[in-house]
Write a structure and sequence with these properties.
The structure holds two protein chains of two kinds. Chain A is built from five helices and three strands; from the N terminus they run H-E-E-E-H-H-H-H. By secondary structure, chain A is an alpha+beta fold. Chain A has a three-stranded antiparallel beta sheet, covered by helices on one side. In chain A, strand 1 and strand 2 form a beta hairpin. In chain A, helix 1 packs across helix 2, helix 2 (69-82) packs parallel to helix 5 (127-143) and helix 3 packs antiparallel against helix 5 (127-143). In chain B, strand 9 (254-257) and strand 10 form a beta hairpin. Chain B starts with a helix and ends with a helix. In chain B, the strands form four sheets. Chain B has a seven-stranded mixed beta sheet with strand order 2-8-7-6-5-3-4, sandwiched between helices. A four-stranded antiparallel beta sheet of chain B has the order 11-12-15-14, covered by helices on one side. Chain B has a two-stranded parallel sheet with strand order 1-13. By secondary structure, chain B is α/β, with parallel strands linked by helices. Chain B is 40% helix and 16% strand. Chain B is globular. Chain B has helices at residues 4-9, 12-16, 33-45, 56-75, 90-100, 123-132, 149-159, 181-190, 210-213, 238-243, 279-295, 297-315, 342-351, 367-370, 386-396, 401-406; strands at residues 21-22, 84-87, 110-114, 135-139, 163-169, 194-198, 217-221, 232-236, 254-257, 263-265, 321-323, 332-337, 354-355, 357-359, 375-379. Classes of the chains: A alpha+beta, B alpha/beta. Chains A and B meet through helix 1 of A and helix 13 and helix 16 of B.
């Protein structure tokens, strides 16, 4: 990965930027989109993730909801990272992301900005925040 | 006044975590050694079942179990021991009342709640209402959580004799407002409805007299009052309790039955305690009550009010903190740091060994009232100190998004 993404100050700034200005942060009313509402009792994040997957390609991902810094930033980064990818490419990225969360070996380079979440496992109670957006897209990919 | 240093020594959790500032007592409380020893003693020295008449040890344990019932009855000033049912906790108790009333509820009957109720005092009523075609309605609250008695009366007038149940928390788990239960009971009873009180956040903190308050059913949990997890209480006025339909059947709850389905149930309260009860839990809860009585519930309430006032005084000086319930007297403070999501704040405080609860505290419809989806909650108990509050307030001053993100680096 680029050296910039090894600088904690840059990663901090990335989280802040995606939290304050989340990307793809508006839902659409369109039947061609699949949708997942992600909420649980143990975690107060409450988001909805939408995706449009056609011909094995993730054409669009959107999300909205009320959520903490980690949930908002991780989901925002995910939408940018996976949009336009094939399902096969996306599955590899998602697998590496969950490996990072679970402190297993992962490929830093293909995670790009999602590397900002590399230390979330240090606050284990927040892993859920960093993964519910990613779980939503994984569920929708698997249903295809 | 309380000797808090001495009190802290009674709790092994503080020995094992001397650095911890524990402000999540609304969720659960620490256990003093006497409670832990009581449980240990049961499992080590008298670990047999209750109600087995064949041997002396069982007789002794049965006596201790019934003595524990008596300890609970006296603690809330019930008329008699038989008004006390051991349950698994306040949730279990509230479910037992809701489903226990199912035969008495009819289509178009009304159940009145408030917007500040905990999920355990809402969801069982939703389900019962759905099954029986009843209507759920809500009594209005003032912004501090106080029930508006005029709207209670308006609703009762509006629905006439259709209102069968009013079920409310004595002290709400988010805003901590203490309702005037005595006055509410008077009104509710004038209209012939039952008053069910969720005492989960009140019984551990204030003296509760079910006769003086004229409560029909009261639910509370042991673990929120220094007792073990998995034990709780359902109190009911004997005749009303006796009329509840038991939710569960099994050993210990019946006297005789035959293959044709004829059952002779045990008398109340035993008919509600099917299966081997949580014996260690009941004995542990009684030990916890003895411990609270030794300190004195009036002393506990007064000290918590003093702590709460101190916390509000210090916290309200911070410009980055918004407090939602400064004027309620119980030891619950609901707050947010400006522009910081509650869960981020909770995690930051956690890295400083301070435990608070972030979330919607199960009162998921409350945001209509305080206009926010989530808050942090600091909830006090008598073993907290002003030093705990000083440390908490000092870290609250540091609550901003930057610091909350920094914990990940």
């Amino acid at each position: 990965m680029t050296n910039m993404l090894k600088d904690p100050a840059v990663l901090r700034e990335l989280i802040m930027d995606h939290y304050k200005y989340p990307r793809n942060h508006e839902l659409v009313e369109d039947d061609s989109y699949d949708s997942r509402h992600m909420a649980s009792d143990s975690c107060i994040d409450d988001i909805t993730v939408q995706s449009k997957i056609e011909d094995g390609i993730i054409k669009d991902i959107r999300f909205d909801g009320v959520a903490c810094t980690i949930c908002t930033a991780s989901t925002s980064i995910m939408t940018e990272l996976l949009k336009g990818k094939s399902i096969d490419e996306a599955n590899v990225i998602i697998e590496n992301y969950f490996n990072m969360m679970n402190e297993k070996t992962y490929d830093e380079d293909i995670l790009e900005e999602a590397i900002a979440m590399m230390n979330v496992h240090r606050q284990a109670n927040r892993i859920k925040c960093a993964t519910i957006g990613w779980k939503a897209i994984k569920e929708m990919i698997d249903r295809k | 006044m309380l000797d808090v240093d001495k009190i802290k020594n009674d709790f092994p959790m503080f020995k094992n975590h001397p650095e911890l500032v524990y402000l999540d007592n609304g969720a659960t409380t620490f256990k003093p050694s006497c409670v832990i020893e009581m449980i240990k003693k049961y499992y080590e020295s008298s670990s047999v079942n209750v109600e087995r008449g064949d041997y002396l040890l069982s007789h002794e344990v049965s006596s201790a179990y019934e003595k524990a019932r008596n300890t609970v009855a006296k603690f809330i000033n019930a008329r008699k021991d038989e008004e006390i049912v051991f349950t698994s906790g306040a949730t279990d108790s509230l479910n037992m009342v809701a489903y226990g009333l199912i035969d008495k509820l009819n289509k178009d009957d009304v159940i009145l709640l408030t917007y500040a109720e905990h999920a355990s005092n809402i969801l069982c009523w939703f389900d019962v209402a759905k099954r029986k075609g009843c209507k759920i309605d809500y009594i209005d609250l003032e912004p501090n959580g106080r029930m508006r008695l005029d709207t209670l009366i308006d609703k009762l007038n509006f629905y006439g004799n259709k209102t069968k149940v009013v079920s409310i928390a004595h002290i709400s788990n988010v805003l901590g407002y203490k309702q005037d239960i005595k006055e509410i009971a008077k009104i509710v009873h004038q209209y012939g409805a039952l008053l069910v009180v969720d005492g989960a956040q009140s019984v551990p903190h204030i003296k509760t007299d079910v006769q003086m308050l004229d409560i029909d059913f009261l639910a509370f949990s042991g673990h929120k009052m220094c007792g073990p997890t998995g034990i709780g209480i359902l109190y009911g006025k004997y005749d009303l309790l006796d009329q509840l339909h038991p939710m569960r059947y099994g050993g210990g709850a019946n006297s005789r039955f035959d293959i044709n389905g004829n059952i002779i149930l045990q008398i109340t309260p035993h008919k509600f305690e099917a299966g081997t009860p949580n014996i260690a839990g009941a004995l542990g809860l009684a030990a916890a009550i003895d411990y609270l009585n030794d300190i004195g519930m009036d002393n506990i309430e007064a000290y918590e009010q003093e702590l709460k006032a101190y916390m509000i005084e210090k916290l309200s000086k911070l410009e980055n903190i918004h407090i939602y319930n400064a004027d309620t007297t119980s030891g619950i403070v609901a707050f947010n740091a400006i522009d910081v999501f509650a869960q981020d704040a909770g995690s930051y405080l956690s890295t400083k060994n301070i435990c608070v609860r972030s979330g919607n505290h199960c009162a998921k419809i409350l945001h209509n009232l305080i206009k926010t989806d989530q808050t942090c909650r600091a909830s006090l108990y008598f073993y907290n100190t002003k030093a705990d509050i000083d440390k908490f307030v000092a870290e609250c001053a540091n609550l901003n998004i930057e610091n909350c993100i920094n914990i990940f680096f």
